[in-house]
Amino acid sequence: MTHVTQEKWSSGMAFLLAAIGSAVGLGNIYRFPYIVGQNGGGAFVLLYLGVVLFFGIPLIMTELTIGRRRQLPPIAAYGALAEGMKSRPFWKLIGFTNIMTPIGILGFYFVIAGWTLNYVYSMITGQLSNLVEGQTQTVFAEMMNSPVTLIFWMTLAVLITAFIISRGIKAGLEKAVNVLMPMLFFILVLLVIYSLFNGGIVETFKFMFYPDFSKITGETVLEATGQAFFSLSLGSATMMVYGSYLPKNESIPKLACGVAFADTFVALIAGFAVFPIIFTNGLDLDSGPNLVFVTLPVIFDQMPFGQVFGILFFMLLAFAAITSTISLFEPTVSTLEEKGICSRPVASLFAGIGLWCLAGLSALSMNVLSDVRLLTFTETVAGKNIMDLLEYMSANAMMLFNTLFAGIFIGWMMNRKDVLEEIGLGDSLLFKFWLTIIRFVVPVVVGYLIYAFFAGKLSS
Ligand code: PFF
What is the pLDDT of residues 92-132, one digit of tens each? Predict the structure, then answer.
């Protein structure tokens, strides 16, 4: 039952910008470069591209279809599409797990979005100038150890996001991405040019595109898949909800390709912004999560115009983070609004307060609550503090679980005629290829990933 007529995107382009905004985030600019660094470069990149092409695009199409068919958020969408099926309650439950996933992701994502805002400020005020390597480590550690700093910046990220969401699709989300996305692309291009001028281009090309297949292990495959799903915003209600606002005359396959292409392009370009700097300065490629917050500030400090480009770099991260947090926040608000529980501004307020509490716990888990363990049922989870646990459960386990069932639903449960009509490819070879991937390949591969994940083969 729909209580509210949902607002729609004003065009396919508006959707595309918002969906790219969702996909392009910390996953591309913060995580992708360091994962490529840790996994040996070219072979990982090649694997990643394969996953995006064969699973990413078909799965974005799947989630957009579930959302747009009845133009409803996940619980109501699954409920409506499963009308008359015995298993309907189960599918509504899947709708519910879809809604819970972005909540879990925001529990840690808001904290990292806060770090990026803090670093923009620190760069502008020169707090990261004249430092040597060990000192940026200290600055980072001091931030982590300070509940007040972490919560202050996280709160700012929550406020900005809730404010944008409260204004609605056209006046809020569209306006925000119309400003933030062009700035994001502009900064990214500037950074790449700057980085290339400082040398290291040949090494970067070699590193990113010369595959050394000996570097590929079972774990690399899992890592590439997890990274691709997270980067494409799959399994987290976002694509379903953004799809539910998509006008019926827009082509789902075309838009899915557009999102996947732009997201992957930005991830690769982020590599070209970061790696040349690392190569020219003879630094370690595999410094992991420290790469952006500890290693880069030292280098910016030593390079010509480093402070300006340092500010731009962290602004880029902050913009990318905010266009993703809005997409993670929207499913909750959309659901509350659709159920007629409260208006959008009130829903944004309540969701904001709830998420602030969750992200607050995450922030505290790096200092005062660092010993607290919420779950201990396996050795892997028992070792994790609240923030790591949220990441582990939502960004990995739940995302995979939701994607698996989205594939099963579209492939095996939903009326073929409805699917055909929504995808709009006719009963063509391309449609059959897509359906085969969704029906057979996705359940086997994603099912195996979930098994591998819980068997402890996927570490983060
Ligand atoms: N794709 C975003 C990133 O790469 O940072 C993260 C994300 C956004 C995941 C939205 C899931 C989602 F629904």
Answer: 999 999 999 999 999 999 999 999 999 999 999 988 888 77
Distance of CA 195 to the CA centre of its chain: 25
d(CA 307, CA 17): 29
Residue 136 has a pLDDT of: 84
Please report the sign of the dihedral spanned by the C-alpha atoms of residue 143, residue 149, residue 151, residue 152: negative
* Identity of the amino acid at 328: L
State which CATH number among 3.40.50.720, 3.40.50.1110, 3.90.180.10, 1.20.1740.10 fits the domain covering 12-454.
Answer: 1.20.1740.10
Q: Which residues line ligand 1 (CB under 6 A)?
A: 22-23, 25-28, 102, 105, 230-231, 233, 236, 238, 324, 327-328
- Given a contact cutoff of 8 angstroms between Cβ atoms, the answer to whether 48 and 227 are in contact is yes
Each residue of 366-401: b (16+ CB within 10 Å) or e? beebeeeeeeeeeebbeebbbbbbbbbbbbbbbbbb
Q: Which of 20, 32, 231 has most ligand 1 atoms within 8 Å of its beta carbon, as the pocket-test mutant?
A: 231
